[in-house]
Design a protein that fits this description.
elongated, 8 helices, five-stranded mixed beta sheet, single chain, alpha/beta
Length: about 240
């Protein structure tokens, strides 16, 4: 056994893959410098939903469009108690230079949410954002949606060539908050105002009352858009 362990410390034994944080896990903790100052994560964001996302590099076209769109949608995210946190494998000087370039573009945008300095890749590796199949030095386009209790609720990965869809990220956040607030699930292509899915019948009386036109395990319910926003906004206000 000792000889096998020694071999695993050499090039003979393949390198073990890093573990990735999974849905339902507590968000890994870290302290880091950002373009908005030092943060302790997730403690400094307690009580808020967080969209924690990474991008491959500063001064790249797809990333630039994403940052502009994240900033343009910032107020919409804030309405549903959500804050943004970005990460790049780069230093603060590079980040700030990139932000300055974005601000000087036509219809320039000032980026106000924080971007983590992760030149040593410590945070990127902690969150599985460095994937050898894509690059050993650049983070993939990852998105971690983390709830007010610091629990990972959604994980998304995109290739370098594909920019993220802000509407889908916003939809996920509203769907998660709706599920928490009303004890429901959301079907394919759901948007606020569409029918939701409630738990299947658990008793003979409930089964008798079920709509016979659809399978017993499918249970739809109308949920008004205003009712959703009234409740999730109230719930978010109570957590602040």
């Amino acid at each position: 056994m000792d000889q096998l362990l020694e071999l695993c410390d050499t090039e003979i034994c393949p390198k073990m893959e890093q573990s990735l944080p999974l849905i339902g896990d507590a968000a890994p903790e870290f302290t880091a410098s950002t373009t908005n100052g030092k943060i302790k994560f997730p403690d400094d964001f307690a009580g808020k939903w967080v969209v924690f996302f990474s991008h491959p590099a500063d001064f790249t076209p797809v990333c630039t469009t994403e940052f502009i769109e994240f900033q343009n949608n910032l107020k919409e995210f804030e309405k549903i108690n959500t804050t943004l946190l970005g990460l790049s494998v780069g230093g603060l000087t590079s980040h700030l230079g990139w932000f300055d370039a974005i601000s000087k573009m036509q219809n320039g945008t000032n980026i106000t949410f924080p971007l983590i300095d992760d030149l040593n890749m410590n945070v990127a590796k902690l969150y599985g954002m460095i994937q050898a199949g894509a690059s050993d030095t650049h983070a993939v386009r990852a998105v971690f949606i983390i709830d007010p209790n610091g629990i990972i609720r959604t994980v998304l990965y995109y290739p370098a060539s594909l920019g993220r869809n802000m509407s889908e990220i916003w939809r996920i956040l509203v769907a998660l908050q709706t599920a928490d607030a009303f004890g429901v699930a959301t079907p394919a292509n759901w948007t606020p105002g569409d029918e939701v899915l409630t738990p299947a019948p658990t008793s003979a009386s409930e089964l008798r009352e079920h709509d016979k036109k659809i399978p017993w395990f499918m249970n739809y319910k109308k949920l008004d858009k205003k009712e959703i926003y009234d409740k999730i906004c109230k719930k978010n206000a109570e957590t602040k």
